[in-house]
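Input record (one chain):
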Amino acid sequence: MNITAERLRSLREKKGLSQSQVADIIGVTRTAYIHYETGRYKPVRKLKELCKLFDVSSDYILGADVEKTSTDDKKPKDLAKFLDDTEIMFDGEIYKLSDADRQKLRNALEFVFWDAKKENKRKK
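The corresponding structure, as predicted from the sequence alone:
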């Protein structure tokens, strides 16, 4: 199942509608709508009606917003902010870090950083 199909099914279920009801509202047969929800066909001709019914954008239905979201997750994390936290979660448990523990973590990460930097220079 593709993202369009998954989203259509999810939107329909959130509204509490059956496949037949959605098909009637947008003016297609139940079979045609089922093809949209199973990913066999893209709902290009009925996109406007689906957007209006579910009150979402066409980008959302077609999954065009996925790329934007996935690149946001790849933004670099602020390591200094992370290291200033007094608690961390490791293996499902929360640990409080003392100043000495945070410094040890900084030292270990700094070592890894410089090692990775050397490796990257060798690859060029």
